[in-house]
Structures are given as C-alpha cells and as structure tokens.
Amino acid sequence: MLHLSVILFLALVLGDSLGAAFPPGTLKKSFSLSKYQFLVPHELKAVQKMKAQFEDIMLLSDRKCNTRLFHRKWNTAELSVADRVMLVEAELELATDMLGLPTVPRFAETRQRPLTFLTQVREDLRGWMATEAPSHQPCGKLRHWLQKLQTAKKTETIGCLEASAILHLFQVLNDLRCAALQEQCT
C-alpha cells in the first residue's frame, strides 16, 4: 500500500511539473492530411448527386461564363505540399462560399452534406497551414492563380462563379488528394 501511495505521489508531482513546463495551449495541435488520401465513398456520392442535380438546374438556365479558373497550364503535382494545401484551401473557400448562397429548396437540401464536408476539409487545411507552414508564401504560378481568383470574384457573376466551383468539385477533391499524398500525382 505504501508503494502505491509513493507511485501516485510521484505521478502527481511529475504531472504538475510537466504541466508547468508546458502550459495549456502551448502544445501544437497536429493536423494530418492523410485522412484525405482516400475520400469516404458516401461523401463522394453526396458530391456527385449534388453536382448532377446542379447540372440539371443549369440546363434550365442561360448562363454564359467567361471564367476559366480551373483550367490551368500547370499541374497540381508541380507545386510544393504547402502550395498544394494553399491552392485547395482557396478552391474550397470559393466552393463553400458558393454552396452557402441561397438557392431553390430542393437543391439546398442536396448540397447540405457536401457543404458540411467541404467546410470541415477547409478548416483542416487552415489548421495545417497555421501549424506546418505559417509563413509560407505561394510560388509564382500559384500566386498568379490566386490573383486570377480574386479578379474573378470581383468581375464574374455569382452564377458563373457558382457554376465554376460546383462543376469542378471533383478536380478540387483530386487536388486535395494530391496535397494529402505529399508526393507527385496526376
């Protein structure tokens, strides 16, 4: 019994001293992108269903868009991991902003699950950037694309931005997979 008391006392003392050495909030939260190497099938199905429904809605509208945001002359695999994460974070910001817009009731219901999933991914990427590459500056290719994105947000119609973001969601998810793999992918 005495040995157990000594062990508990030592554990408490050690715990207190470690707590003083590492105050709450100083330990870095780890963000792993590995969970995005292979996306969950039900999330992909929800995105596919939403995209198909959106394409049906688009057939009924007359949208002429000039934006070619997702048509790049370079491949995501050419970027560093931090640049890949920064790219996908910007793509997801556009997508979640567009999915958050008011819409017809039947499409609003269909897009809820993808919106929730994509918002969580975007937050994970922000956390990864904050912990793994807080002062990272994008390379020239990415910087140019980010400027193009900002220009499009100011000059394109909401309808065109929405169409571009939704119709290219699988490209965004592939870019996410490339960032998670942290190696060359196509």
Would you write up a description of this structure?
With about 190 residues, the protein is an all-alpha fold. It has a domain of about 50 residues. It contains seven helices and no strands. Helix 3 packs antiparallel against helix 4 and helix 3 packs across helix 6. The longest helix has 28 residues. The chain is globular and about 45 Å long. GO terms for molecular function: cytokine activity. It is found in: Secreted. Keywords: Antiviral defense, Cytokine, Secreted, Signal.
Question: What is the gist of this entry?
Answer:
InterPro entries: IFN-lambda_sf (IPR038326), INF_lambda (IPR029177). The chain has 186 residues and is mainly α.
Question: Which terms summarize this structure?
Answer:
single chain, mainly alpha, 186 residues, 7 helices
Secondary structure: elements and pairs:
Blueprint: H1 2-21, H2 41-59, H3 81-99, H4 105-132, H5 140-155, H6 158-167, H7 169-181
Helix pairs in contact: 2-4, 3-4, 3-6, 3-7
InterPro entries: IFN-lambda_sf, INF_lambda
Protein name: IFNL3 protein
Keywords: Antiviral defense, Cytokine, Secreted, Signal
